[in-house]
Write a structure and sequence with these properties.
Shape: globular
Largest sheet: 7 strands, mixed
Strand content: over 45%
Number of strands: 11
Distance between the termini: 40 Å
Low-confidence stretches: none
Structural class: mainly beta
Helix content: under 10%
Radius of gyration: 13 Å
């Protein structure tokens, strides 16, 4: 069965960095686009970044552009999110999600599997 397991979250200071990982199994990882979403306290689910199946195309929400970098290693079936210059407003639970098709979208309806998430907390 499809499994997505996020890791790498934790407590960071304002301006600090964290690197999230998402280990995928149970499907042909290299055939699907992937995205990171997040949900902050009292907020709805927010698309953060997406990447094409071969890693050649990426996109970012305006709120993280220039600070976050999405990447993937298809040989390791792993998705990454490098988060730099962290701000308190980045505090959220972060989820990796598998796209239904081979393209990413900002809409949650375009994804069919997600992990349990990893918590990121940024102190000011």
């Amino acid at each position: 069965q499809v499994q997505l397991v996020e890791s790498g979250g934790g407590l960071a200071q304002f301006g600090g960095s964290l690197r999230l990982s998402c280990a995928a199994s149970g499907f042909a990882f290299s055939d699907y686009a992937m995205s990171w979403f997040r949900q902050g306290p009292g907020k709805g689910l927010e698309w953060v970044s997406g990447i094409t199946s071969d890693g050649s195309g990426t996109s970012y929400a305006d709120s993280v552009k220039g600070r976050f970098t999405i990447s993937r290693d298809n040989s390791k079936n792993t998705l990454y999110l490098q988060m730099d210059s962290l701000k308190p407003e980045d505090t959220a639970r972060y989820y990796c999600e598998k796209a239904i098709r081979n393209y990413y979208s900002r809409a949650a309806s375009a994804y069919d599997y997600w992990g349990q998430g990893t918590q990121v907390t940024v102190s000011s």
